[in-house]
């Protein structure tokens, strides 16, 4: 059924869904309705390149469900994107929003392109064309996009401007993660990494780990990874190793994170920062540390790596970093406390929700209020997950997925099936 959602990432999301549906004893005839996306849109995005040639990129938007409110989720620009991956990410968004009690269904979008290969002018043309193609299918109460891998505040500003020009009025609430200068909220850019760090603080309390004397390794040094690195560094955590798609660095004495952030703000990537502490990017996930933070792409923690990992907390900042086979290994390694992705990186969508609410009301909050409300919502998600994992005798991932799925299912059952 629904062969279009092929590939290993959707296979993984589907299997996790089935495991949770078994735990919740959801009748088999109700499962496809909960699993398969409501809508999937594929678009072609032609643009002029700077050399005068025309090139066409393929893009997708998958809206998993709209049973609790608008669909919500990021858009990634990545050469590896396919519709199965985007659909899987839309499912995870659904369970995440429901776990956090946000009034959204899950969505995700993607354009198959290497954004680093485009000039700023080409990136703007592609961003505008993608939004233009999706205008009939999105809206502030239908589907609200946000940044993800390869997109940022500037891309969101172009999305918002394109939608607003079509509407004939400024519609700031059409996307979140915009610059503060055009309807964004303070604290959104930092929200995901900040939330990741907050869940690490809570996990450390659970396992009696003194963070101020601990060590961490972070894969991915973009929006999420760099902010998490900075926040952990500020808490006194020694960051032993970091990597991005261009370089990896390891220093047993601890890396100078503020200096590296400054370097990346000027050069865009880690490459060229240092020749002394260069290391093998494939080796960093297995460096012995207290806190391991995959903050790049999905399916990097394989069965082999799960067997070798030497950390006490695995904080899944990225979406879907751990394969099903690796999860089976972790089931036999309870000494590793896993903060599952839908909990760990939920600070981003939580503050996106605040941005949407503020835009709808045209009434803006202070940063302290944003941070304290985000932590309150995430704390509830964290403690509910840990409690229900113990009660149900399941992993933190299953407990969190079940909580999200239970809420989506309850809404669908209460609303009934139309017509
Ligand atoms: P980004 O584009 O800002 O950064 C991605 C980083 O990963 C870059 O440093 C890139 O070089 C690096 N990377 C890519 N492939 C890599 C590889 N094979 N090995 C090492 N590094 C690699 O993206 P982001 O917004 O920071 O997103 C990172 C992860 O967090 C993604 O899984 C995304 O879905 C998830 N996430 C992001 C947000 C958000 O608000 N941006 C919210 C929730 C979850």
UniProtKB/TrEMBL annotation:
**Entry keyword set:** NAD, Nucleotide-binding, Oxidoreductase
The residues forming a coiled coil are: none
Pinpoint the site Important for catalysis. Answer: 148
Q: Where does NAD(+) bind?
A: 192, 223
The biological process GO terms on file are:
L-glutamate catabolic process
Q: Which residues form the active site?
A: 108
InterPro entries, per this entry?
Answer: Aminoacid_DH-like_N_sf, Glu/Leu/Phe/Val/Trp_DH, Glu/Leu/Phe/Val/Trp_DH_C, Glu/Leu/Phe/Val/Trp_DH_dimer, Glu/Leu/Phe/Val_DH_AS, Glu_DH, NAD(P)-bd_dom_sf, NAD_bind_Glu_DH
SUPFAM superfamilies, A to Z? Aminoacid dehydrogenase-like, N-terminal domain, NAD(P)-binding Rossmann-fold domains
Q: Where is the signal peptide?
A: none
Q: Which GO terms describe its molecular function?
A: glutamate dehydrogenase (NAD+) activity; nucleotide binding
Locate the residues binding substrate. Answer: 72, 96, 352
Record has Lipid metabolism as a keyword: no
Q: Residues in domain Glutamate/phenylalanine/leucine/valine/L-tryptophan dehydrogenase C-terminal?
A: 185-416
Name the family the entry cites. Answer: Belongs to the Glu/Leu/Phe/Val dehydrogenases family.
What is the protein name for this chain?
A: Glutamate dehydrogenase
Origin organism is Commensalibacter communis
């Amino acid at each position: 059924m629904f062969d279009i959602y092929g590939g290993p990432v959707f296979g993984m999301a589907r299997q996790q869904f089935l495991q949770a549906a078994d735990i919740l004893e959801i009748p088999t005839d109700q499962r496809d309705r909960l699993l398969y996306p409501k809508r999937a849109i594929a678009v072609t995005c032609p643009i002029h390149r700077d050399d005068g040639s025309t090139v066409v990129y393929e893009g997708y938007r998958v809206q998993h469900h709209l049973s609790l409110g608008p669909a919500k989720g990021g858009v990634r620009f990545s050469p590896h994107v396919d519709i199965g991956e985007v659909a899987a990410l839309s499912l995870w968004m659904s369970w995440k929003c429901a776990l956090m009690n946000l009034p959204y269904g899950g969505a995700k979008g993607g354009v198959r392109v290497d954004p680093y290969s485009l000039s700023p002018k080409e990136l703007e043309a592609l961003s505008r064309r993608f939004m233009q193609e999706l205008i009939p299918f999105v809206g502030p109460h239908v589907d609200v996009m946000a940044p993800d891998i390869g997109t940022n505040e500037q891309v969101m500003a172009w999305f918002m401007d394109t939608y607003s020009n079509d509407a004939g009025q400024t519609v700031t609430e059409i996307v979140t993660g915009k610059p503060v200068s055009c309807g964004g909220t303070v604290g959104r850019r930092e929200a995901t990494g900040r939330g990741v760090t907050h869940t690490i603080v809570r996990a450390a309390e659970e396992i009696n780990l003194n963070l101020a004397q601990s060590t961490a390794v972070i894969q991915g040094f973009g929006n999420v990874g760099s902010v998490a690195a900075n926040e952990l560094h500020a808490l006194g955590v020694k960051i032993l190793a970091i990597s991005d798609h261009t370089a990896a660095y390891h220093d047993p004495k601890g890396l100078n994170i503020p200096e590296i952030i400054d370097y990346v703000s000027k050069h865009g990537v880690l490459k060229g920062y240092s020749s002394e502490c260069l290391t093998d990017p494939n080796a960093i996930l297995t460096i012995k540390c207290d806190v391991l933070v995959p903050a790049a792409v999905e399916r990097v923690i394989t069965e082999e790596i799960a067997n070798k990992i030497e950390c006490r907390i695995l904080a899944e900042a990225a979406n879907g970093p751990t394969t099903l086979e690796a999860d089976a290994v972790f089931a036999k390694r309870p000494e590793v406390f896993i903060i599952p992705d839908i909990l760990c990186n939920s600070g981003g969508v939580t503050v996106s929700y605040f941005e949407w609410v503020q835009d709808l009301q045209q009434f803006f909050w202070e940063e302290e209020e944003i941070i304290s409300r985000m932590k309150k919502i995430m704390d509830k998600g964290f403690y509910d997950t840990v409690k229900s994992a113990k009660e149900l005798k399941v992993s933190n991932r299953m407990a969190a997925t079940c909580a999200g799925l239970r809420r989506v299912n309850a809404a669908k059952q209460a609303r009934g099936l139309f017509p």
